[in-house]
Amino acid sequence: MLLRILAVACFAFSIAQAQDIQYVSAENGLVMREQPNQGAVKVGVLDYGTPVEIIEYTDLSLDVRDNKKKVTGKWVKIKGPAAGEYFEDAYVFNGYLTEEKIERPLKIPFDAFTVFINKLNEDVASDNISINKNTSPTFKIEKDKSPENRYLKVKHHQDYRTIQVLQRYRNSIAITSVKGETKFSDFQHYTSSWKPLKMLYSDGNIFKTIALSEKDQKRFGTIDEVQLNSYLKNKNQVRSHIAPSQIELKVIMTDIDGYRTEKNVIFELPLKS
Fold this sequence. Notes:
It is a single chain. By secondary structure, this protein is mainly beta. It folds into 2 domains: about 1-100, SH3 type barrels, CATH 2.30.30.40; about 105-270, no CATH class. It has 3 helices and 18 strands. The longest helix is centred in the N-terminal third of the chain and has 17 residues, at about 1-20. The protein is elongated and about 75 Å long. The relative contact order is 0.14.
C-alpha cells in the first residue's frame, strides 16, 4: 500500500515537473487569439508577469517590431485560467514569453484606466482594507516594505489628452506602551501637499513614485504637548514619535472631450523597524 502511494506521488510530481510554465514579458500585455495568426479573433490580453502553461508549439514563425527592435518567435498554444475565463486554451506569440519568473505588478483597475505598480504585488498584505471602484482602494503594506521609488504605469482604456499622477503622504504620531508595543495613534496627523510624479516614458505612461526624505518623515504641525501627554497617560503609553503612516496617489486623466477622471489609491504604511 505504501509503495502504491509513493508511486502515485512520484507520478504526480513528474507530471508537475513536466509542465512548461513561462511568464509574459510584454509590458503592455500579450494578446491571446483563437487561432495562431494575427487576423484571428482576439480572446483576451495577458498582463505583464502572468504565468502561462504552454501545451503546444507550432512551426508558425512571426517577427514583430517593438520600438524599432525586431522580436522573433513562434505561435504557441497555452491553457489554464490565464487563457481567459471563457476559453480553455488560446494562442500567443512566444517572443514575449520568458522562462525566468517575473514578479507580477500590483494591478488596480478603474473604468477609464488601470494602474500597475512594479514589484509591489507581493508587498501588499492579504487583508486589503478596501477595493471598491466607488471609493479609493486602500492597501496595507507589509512590514519593512514601501510603495516609494516604484515604477508606475497607467494603461488607458480610451483615447485621452493628458495623464498625470500626483503623490502626497501623511505623518502620524506613533505611541509606545510600557510593554514596548508601538502603534500609530489617531491623536494628530500631518498631510503634505500634492507633488507631481515625473513621467519617465511618455509612450507607455510610466512614472516613478517619490521616496520620502528624512526631513519629509519628520514634518508635522504644532503639537500641544500638554494634550499629548494627557493622551499618552489615558492610553497607558509612555512615549511617542513622528512617522509616515500613509502614502496616497492621485491619477488624473483628461479624455479627448475634456472630461476629467480622478482616482486615488491609498497605501497604509507599516511602522518601520
